[in-house]
Records
---
Amino acid sequence: MFGLGSNLRIGIDLGTHSIKVAVVEKVGPRFRLIKWKCSEMYTGGEKYDPEGPKKSVAVPHLMKVLTELGLQPRKVKHLASCIGGQLVAAKEISSIMQTEIEMASSLLLEARKHIPLDGSETIVDYQILGDDVKETDKVRVLLVATTRKAFETHQDYLREIELKPGIIDIEPLAVLNAYVVHSQLPDDGVIIFLHIGAKRTILSVFGRRDMFFTRDLPVGGMHFTDELMRNFGLEYDEAERIKKTQGMNPSIERKTAEGAGLGLAERTTLEKLGDEINRSLRYYVKETGQSVFTHFVLTGGSAMLIGLDTYLSNKFNLPIELYNPFNQLDSRIPIDADNPYQMAAAVGLVIRGDM
Ligand SMILES: Nc1ncnc2c1ncn2[C@@H]1O[C@H](COP(=O)(O)OP(=O)(O)O)[C@@H](O)[C@H]1O
Ligand SMILES: [Mg+2]
């Protein structure tokens, strides 16, 4: 065990498919990666649970991952974790600079107008994104919200294994943080971030000048796997393996599962994702007037799906950057990750400035 309780920071991204944990140490202004792990919850023939992960699956698995990393939950002092999914929302506003107390009370009132989350009780917080370059006496403020229920459920998962909840972020911001610390944002135009998980894709748009925007798209890795299962009559495990090694057009015999004939008009999962992205970008252009998109930044477990980058760059005529969050960390251990992109949110969490 490495002097836990000292200055080690832990970032936990409790996903729907995999649990991602990053452990770093702050050395001056830099972060040094000490350990990390990405651990899939559905192995051994169980099919991915789109409603999950249930507490009975997630909590013991998280405990197992921490034990494998040599971490004792009770001794963790600097923890950051995140909540994702439909139950979070974010909206950028421009506000005059205020003291922290003024900011808290006025913005939280403001937030209730801007971010209605299905009528249930919401919790709101904010993060200053920086100066407003258009109106110099103002700052860019990002309001974030989640439901009290989602927030408490998340804390409950952590407390169950005696982890003391620390900073709790929303997943889109965790991903953004992983990127902006060392990568340049464009002065003109905006970047499109796609964080492609198992169940959903988080699309965010961000640049130095223009409004931050994020939306959850209902397409993710499981839909690609389901498509392979349907078209080739495969079991879940096999479809996952083929997806990772061959992509969506594998060289195996097509064998449509019974009752699931592929209608000619049916769009592929990739096309559905493309259409969702298109719709969100049109909305962004309409809302902000900004239509200069510089490139895509891909993260999340499904970012490296074979053929995805080509599809996106052809459809939108934009360059693609697969973003490896480890690149901005120092490390004494070799990082031989098969899929480093999956670790983006965990790394974004662990390098937050204010932990
Ligand atoms: N090499 C790969 N190629 C394609 N898909 C992958 C690859 N590695 C992982 N995935 C997919 O990524 C998804 C998990 O992504 P992740 O970001 O961890 O999701 P979540 O955050 O919801 O747990 C799964 O659908 C998995 O099949
Ligand atoms: Mg995720």
Note: The first strand starts at residue 8 and ends at 14.
---
Amino acid sequence: MKVTFKQETEGEKGKTILEVARDNQIKMKAPCEKGKCGKCKVRVLAGELAVLNKEEKKELSKKEIADGVRLACMAEVIGDVTVEIVKKKKK
Ligand code: FES
């Protein structure tokens, strides 16, 4: 069974999703903060973020990009947006 928690926060334009998460005490895994490890993935559910940067294009697969996945440490807020943290399934 799935249990979904949603939390609305305020985030400044130009800040990354990771910065907004930290400003609002939302815990996220983000070991490198440089777009290199791919562990801070979020999925855009509504709204949009700044265009993908070079690191995101390198780190994310075409399928992930088509699915709205972004790197929280790279993706900047440009307006109202809803994202969910992408959790890796345990094998
Ligand atoms: S924290 Fe490593 S890619 Fe974002």
Note: The helical segments are 17-23, 54-59, 62-66.
